[in-house]
Design brief:
The chain is of the alpha+beta class and 479 residues long. The protein is 30% helix and 18% strand. It has 2 domains: 111 residues, Roll (Ubiquitin-like (UB roll)); 321 residues, 2-Layer Sandwich (Creatine Kinase, Chain A, domain 2).
């Protein structure tokens, strides 16, 4: 079992890109063939298996079946409507870019056996496997999250490159809240008191939830998920888990499973874990920072560095692409109305598209490192984002910068969070920016853009049906 607390380096940066990136095919999880899968299931006495896939919100969808049926070449299918409904389960009205499929035809699930792992919190021996989604004729479904990310990784591969990422996921532990009308509050730790804010990097803050963290490590180890470091963040009972660097699809799979794992571990201890971007008023939001680099497939060399160790042309163009295109792709990294409550000044969050060397006030930070580990950290995504789409968006923007030769601005040395906000201020503005960017169709595809934009507009309309406490407080008796 890994050590309970591994601290980050002195800069607080993830230490996960400080060595030559591993071959993504060297996975510690899963199996390679159906025969191996059958043996794997027998050896562990697995009775049931969950075949899951992320919807556009990143919510696990799928089917459970006996393990004997799973290995008998059973055909698995889900209705296509799963990718056309909002987070609240509603179907948006049709628009020019969004169409509902009235036949609701089936999509087929294809298990990725390399993701096969146990489900350690289930009382009966249970396994899970992440599935790809294909259409009835066997073609890849272009608008499902895993396929969108695979498409972007394929664009890099076409150029002889392999992107390498390392996500950092922040989340809050909160006391159980059964009535959504009431605000969230920090839970009580082992001291019997609710932990306060301002506890960044506090070991005592982590120790308040020792038993829960033990379960997170235990559950993670059972699933082959690798935690690099765990720290206490600035918010009350706000934690951050850093993952080891690797292949984008494999890391998105890990974030997908980590979210589920952390929620299950928290509920075992009578509290909630939330990945909402802004769960508590007046407290910092939760981010999913993404460290990014690119290596040559044949050479294994980081293309962000020249042979003499200096920054390469691709490095600067990647940053230029982040600056130019990420604001238009922000809706894939900040997907809900609540996400934009995090993207406000004075809340430990960048609200710009600037870049700088080891400057945490910029959207795109270049951490201190040697030439082999040169990387760009995107600090804009929030933890509520679907990890497949957030990674796809960030990597696509960097690739577009390289393809189009986009030059970045000069690096920012001072605070970049003073003055105007350089990002979309709300969900509808962000959706419009995505639809209006002509280069996005060549990287994401028109099917995905149309469906995703339609869903986001539908979610905004659902949100507008809710009357907030602010409205009751300031409008009820004053207007």
């Amino acid at each position: 079992m890994p050590p309970k607390k591994r601290m980050p380096n002195a800069l607080g940066a993830a230490s996960n890109l400080e060595s030559v990136p591993p071959d993504p095919m060297e996975s510690k999880r899963g199996v390679a063939s159906w025969a191996d899968a059958a043996q794997w299931l027998r050896t562990r006495g697995i009775e049931d298996i969950e075949c899951i896939t992320p919807d556009l919100a990143g919510v696990p969808r799928g089917k459970m079946m006996p393990s004997s049926k799973f290995t008998s070449n059973t055909s698995l299918a889900l209705p296509s409507a799963l990718y056309r409904h909002t987070i609240s389960g509603e179907y948006p009205e049709e628009t020019d870019s969004f169409r509902y499929e009235p036949r609701d035809g089936d999509l087929k699930l294809v298990p990725d056996l390399s993701t096969l792992s146990v489900v350690p919190w289930e009382p009966d021996p249970t396994a899970q496997v992440i599935c790809d989604v294909i259409s009835a004729d066997g073609a890849e479904c272009p608008y499902t999250p895993r396929n969108v990310l695979k498409r972007i990784v394929g664009l890099y591969r076409d150029r002889g490159w392999r992107p390498v990422v390392a996500p950092e996921i922040e989340f809050y532990l909160v006391a159980k809240n059964e009535d959504p009308d009431y605000p969230l509050h920090p839970p009580k730790g082992r001291s019997g008191r609710a932990i306060l804010g301002g506890q960044g990097y506090s070991i005592a803050g982590i120790n308040e939830f020792d038993e829960l963290i033990d379960d997170i490590y235990h559950f993670s180890e059972k699933q082959g998920l690798e935690i690099d470091t765990l720290i206490h963040e600035e918010g009350p009972a706000q934690l951050e888990i850093n993952l080891r660097h690797g292949d984008p699809v494999e890391l998105a799979d890990q974030v997908f499973l980590f979210k589920r794992t952390i929620r299950e571990a928290a509920m075992k201890h009578g509290i909630y874990a939330t990945f909402m971007a802004k769960p508590m008023q007046g407290q910092p939001g939760s981010a999913m920072h993404i460290h990014q680099s690119v290596v040559g497939i044949e050479t294994g060399r980081n293309i962000f560095s020249n042979a003499d160790g200096s920054p390469s042309r691709e490095f600067f163009h990647f940053i230029g692409g982040q600056q130019k295109y990420v604001p238009a792709a922000l809706v894939m990294m900040a997907p809900y109305v609540n996400s934009y409550r995090r993207l406000t000044p004075d809340m430990s969050c960048p609200v710009n598209n600037a870049w700088g060397y080891d400057n945490r006030t910029t959207a795109f930070r270049v951490p201190g490192s040697d030439a082999n580990a040169r990387r760009v950290e995107n600090r804009l995504p929030s933890s509520d984002a679907n990890p497949y789409l957030a990674l796809a968006a960030s990597l696509a923007c960097g690739l577009l910068g390289i393809m189009k030769g986009i030059e970045p601005t000069a690096p920012t040395e001072d605070s970049a969070n003073e003055g105007s906000i350089d990002l979309p201020r709300g969900l509808l503005e962000a959706v419009s920016l995505m639809e209006d960017e002509p280069h996005f169709e060549e990287v994401f595809g028109s099917d995905f853009i149309g469906i995703y934009a339609g869903i986001k507009r539908g979610e905004f309309e659902t949100f507008m049906q809710v009357i907030s406490p602010w409205e009751r407080e300031f409008l009820l008796l004053n207007v």
